[in-house]
Amino acid sequence: MALALPSWLTPFFFLQYPVKTPPNPDSFPNSQYYATGLKDIYIAITIIAVMAILRDAFRLLVFEPFARWKLTRDLSFKLAQEANGNGHNGEANGNGHVLHPTKRQQRKIHRSVLRFAEQGWSMVYYPLQWGFGLYVNRNLPTRIFDPVDLWVNYPHVYLPAEVKFYYIAQTAFYLHQILILNAEARRKDHVQMMTHHVITVFLMGMSYFYNLTRIGCVIMVLMDWCDIFLPMAKMMRYLELPQLLTDATFGWFLISWFVTRHVLFIIVIWSAIFDVPRLLSFDWDPVRGHFLSKGSHAMFLSCLLALEVLQIIWFWMICRIAWRVVTSGEGASDDRSDDEGGSTDGKEE
């Protein structure tokens, strides 16, 4: 199939830089191995385009129609109950006219449909990518509670196909998220989200080309886990499902966030700070793929710590929501980025 494509198109559809499988590899012994290079950007562009098409397809053909049907049906049932409660049959009021949704109710449905559909892509992407990331990490000789294995046999110059594709796909996803963030209406935490995505892409690119992919694989699977449950809780809220179910999902998201991003992630950062100088030499030698110097190490740690600071800020906001739910009985809502900074209609809020 590769021969049927012009040579200039091949990098957009196939992994580049194939090499012979190293002798006695410590992971994926039956996979094709690859080196890294700038041509890897081409397939990332293709993945971004595919994600854009899939996101709009799911949004327009699946999530928006479903949410509109569900919310419209629920509202019609509610109006019928109100009419019957007034002693009338069907959806009629006292004047014999059918009860219709008010403009306010229509605007609320429209807004909920759009929000539900926006979160839908996350609910498609994160479970699939987290599952694939778990598969990748289970086949690497690394342990989350003892991350010293992340640095053994550095540099990991050649990557099995699974690791290479996982890395490129994840990088493409965050580049796609940057495009979406700038295309949609600005949310209250636009600056924080943009900072997070830029740092993430920089870290992924740096670790990819500096042959530090094993720590990247661990961090990505940690980050993706709790990102499954926040969009799930939001979608439940937009569909007006029982508050107990929404709050329970949000509670599980809160626990998952704390464990993965403030316990396990800290363990990884701790290893990067103390195990790297102990186990590896600071030696900038591109010929053998060794890109670890004191400067690159400091830059890498600075980006990891910056991510953790952002996550601490967000976790404080999440805890405020949880406290509000417990003390006032209000339903969970995301203070980080759920609403825009301003409403197009003051009455709607």
Features:
mainly alpha; about 350 residues; about 65% helix; about 5% strand; 8 helices; globular; Lag1/Lac1-like; 3-stranded antiparallel beta sheet; TLC-dom
What oligomeric state is this? single chain
The number of helical segments is 8
Rg to the nearest angstrom? 24 Å
- Helix % is 55-70%
The proportion of residues in beta strands is: under 5%
Order of helices and strands: EEHHEHHHHHEEH
**What distance lies between the first and last C-alpha atoms, to the nearest angstrom?**
54 Å
Please give the largest β-sheet: 3 strands, antiparallel
Can you tell me the residue ranges where pLDDT is under 50 for at least 5 consecutive residues? 87-94, 338-349
**Taking strands numbered 1, 2, ... along the chain, how are they ordered across the largest sheet?**
1-2-3
Number of strands: 5
Shape verdict: globular
Mean pLDDT metric = 87
Structural class: mainly alpha
Q: Can you walk through the features of this model?
A:
The chain has 349 residues and is mainly alpha-helical. The protein has 8 helices and 5 strands; from the N terminus they run ββααβαααααββα. The chain has helices at residues 40-85, 103-138, 161-183, 190-209, 213-226, 229-238, 243-279, 294-328, and strands spanning 18-19, 33-34, 159-160, 283-285, 290-292. The strands form 2 sheets. A 3-stranded antiparallel sheet has the order 1-2-3. Strands 4-5 form a two-stranded antiparallel ribbon. A hairpin with a 4-residue loop joins strand 4 and strand 5. Helix 1 (40-85) crosses helix 2 and helix 6 packs antiparallel against helix 7 (243-279). The longest helix has 46 residues, at 40-85. The protein is globular and about 80 Å long. Mean pLDDT is 87; it is low at 87-94 and 338-349.
